[in-house]
Amino acid sequence: MSYTVKIKRQARRKLKSLGKRDRLRITDAISSLGIDPDDATLDIKQLTGSNLWRLRVGGWRILYDRQDYMKIIKIEKIKPRGDAYK
Question: Which numeric CATH code is attached to 4-80?
Answer without folding.
Answer: 3.30.2310.20
